[in-house]
Amino acid sequence: MKFPAILTALACAAPLAAHEYWIKPDKFFVAAGATVNLTLNVGEDFTGLVRPFNTEKVAALRHYSAAGVVDLFARVPAGPGFDTLPLALAKPGTHLIAEDSQPSTITLSPDKFLGYLNEDGLEFVAEARKAAKQENEPGRERYLRCVKTLIRVGDKSDATYAIRTGQRLEIVPQSDPFAARPGSRLAFTVFFDRQPLAGAQVRAWHHRDKIIVTLKGRSAADGTIAFDLPYAGPWMISLVHMIPIKDVPGYDWQSYWGNLTFAVPSP
């Protein structure tokens, strides 16, 4: 079954807990040999604050290209860290940067947790809490981020966009985003534990004339979701998946936040 994508212009902020987290390159299209500056961002509506690269926040950082994979974690410092990671990109083609976060925890009041679950399409968690007579208990959650960005070097891209990084929650384009044009339909497959994830609420985000535009839908039985992307420029695809946990004292749910950023070329 296919779930339609719905276009929404956001007029108000999402609940406090529904912070997105993404990798933002200062450029999505660069010449061979150029340096791209990467930042980690957290916020709402594809607008956020920079968070530092440090080992307290970053658990893994890898660079994929047609030449292979390079582990960048050795470049992530302990301590305060730094806001920007410069990355020289010598070879033409598509480059993929993947980052996994260290786990964090949060406890929300029952009403705020329910609002967050409804906002991110996690109604099955609310139903499970109600069935267990826990709907009036605080929402105790541990969460991790699984994020990626795509960058094109030179005039041609390659199949690196489709690389499976093995992140626990992962968004993989079915075709080359850099070959898309405004109005193109672009399909993605969502994987959790390397298997297609059905029924997940997925969003696409874009800034347009100071308005935040979102497209929203749910993944089909085979984990696929497709959006008609009406505008050129940077896009972000995101979702949240949540499972119960029993091995972390004081917390009942484990969430994973998947994110992919890229840009649709101008005509």
Structure, explained:
This protein has one domain (6-264). Mean pLDDT is 93; it is low at 6-18. It has 267 residues and is mainly beta. Strand 4 and strand 5 form a beta hairpin. It has helices at 110-119, 123-131; strands at 6-9, 20-25, 29-30, 34-44, 47-51, 58-65, 68-71, 85-89, 93-101, 104-108, 139-153, 169-173, 184-192, 195-196, 201-208, 211-218, 224-229, 233-244, 253-264. The strands form three sheets. Strands 1, 3, 6, 7, 9, 10, 11, 15, 16, 18 and 19 form an eleven-stranded mixed beta sheet that branches. Strands 2, 4, 5 and 8 form a four-stranded antiparallel beta sheet that branches.
Short description:
With 267 residues, the chain is mainly beta. Helices cover 7% and strands 51% of the residues.
Write out key terms for the chains shown.
267 residues; mainly beta; eleven-stranded mixed beta sheet; four-stranded antiparallel beta sheet; 2 helices
Order of helices and strands: EEEEEEEEEEHHEEEEEEEEE
The secondary-structure class comes to mainly beta
Shape: globular
The total strand number stands at 19
**Total domains, how many?**
1
The number of helices is 2
Largest sheet: 11 strands, mixed
Straight-line distance between termini? 33 Å
**What does the average pLDDT come to?**
93
Poorly predicted regions are 6-18
Beta content: over 45%
Specify Rg, calculated over alpha carbons: 18 Å
Helix content: under 10%
